[in-house]
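@channel anyone free to eyeball this complex?
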Amino acid sequence: MKPLAASWVDVFVFPGDKLFKLEDGDNIRIGQGVFKKGEYLVAVKPGYLHKDGNKVWVETAQKRYIPCVGDVVIGVIVERSSEFYQVDIGGFSTALLPLLAFEGATKRNRPHLTVGSCVYARVVSTDRDSEPQLSCLLPGTQHSWVTGETIFGELNQGNLVHCSISLCRNILLGKNSVFTELGKYIAFEQATGMNGRIWVRSQSAGHIVLLSNLLVCSENMTNEQLNAMIRNLVSKMTATTPTAIDEATNGR
Amino acid sequence: MSYEHSSSGRRDGRKSYEIRGFRCELGYLERADGSCKLEQGKTQVVAAVYGHLEARGRTELPDRTFIEVSIRPCQGYTSDYLRLRERELEEVFIATVATELQPRSCVAIILQIVENDGSLMSAMINAGMLALLSAGIPCHWIATSCTVSYRRTEGFLLDPILVEEAEGYATAVTSYSFQGQESDPSQNLIGLSFRGFVCSQDIYFQSLAYSREACKKVFEFIRLVVEKSQALDCGYAEP
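replying in thread with the prediction:
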């Protein structure tokens, strides 16, 4: 693979820009925003070009999610047929989740999800001629879905927050410290999907509201600003909720 | 070149080959996947792109993406005249978008005319392109456009205002595609819509050469706008 410019990595590229010239024996995985045209790799989206080993992709700030194999996503069930759940994952079409794609599920004993319930799953196939397929199976886990200890599966209670894809990406990459910082003060559960959705659950409705608001705010703040805001809000919260007051008195 | 130093000059003091100043706001609309407001002089267009959407019925093509362009006038309903323009724009955008990448889907491009002061078609193509880029729809190239107005005495004028358009005896909307900065635009005429007749071959070819240069300027503008918008988006992620 021959780069066509002096430095083609971490530069801003535009649709139609030729990125690399392919040579015999190249083994390259192309991702979002890159397209093979003849013997060239060409960008089809505007964004920053990234290259990691033999992977090449363009990172775009876009609102709509495009399913990609291996992504973890949060979906909402929209329909149920005899073999599949149809799940809205924010892509251009709904995704299919087989009824039995849960850890330890059998025909007799399987989770019954209703329309409107949230599910945490991973994308297993994104064929261009069919709907994307999801799965809640994770090879190597010991738990059955019944125990509720599996990583993937239905998300009960809690609140689903819609946000931008770049925020989700930054949280998953660890660039955004909202969860690590909040974890110092309150107990909560979270699931972040690559499709611009974050699910949170905590001990009380007040805590969930606090979490959801902080998440949305965190997008346009630096980590220092965020930490200050979290400390401020949590201290106000502890002054009002009884459980927190109990904890505070016990501490004394 | 006798066309350049016209004795009368233009109403707004431009030279015949000069285009008006551009202003653009990317991400102008909250709900659309991609949007922009483009001002080309006094001509103002708001473009919104929704997509990829799930295609249903006649919009579902088994091998490629369906592109739907709708033009909304400042007031009243979409007239037959605008319907025709929609078809012309559809041709340009079908060629531009990499439609084969996402079959059975639909991309809707909505163009709201806010104010028309000449070169409306060009403004709509440029605005549509910017909205496509901001939505992250995969494209083969960047499409740019420029209007040329032909007149008897002064040759031609680039990017005419409404009055100049009415005075001219022919108008051409030229669209060029750009693939990379060093691409040769002489090969890349992707759209040419003519109204009226041009009497001189000389003037015709000259006008194409000048409009190509104007399109190159538009291309540089689009690059600048898009790069800036994403730099802001990613800015906070830097440690």
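from a first look: The longest strand of chain A covers residues 72-80.
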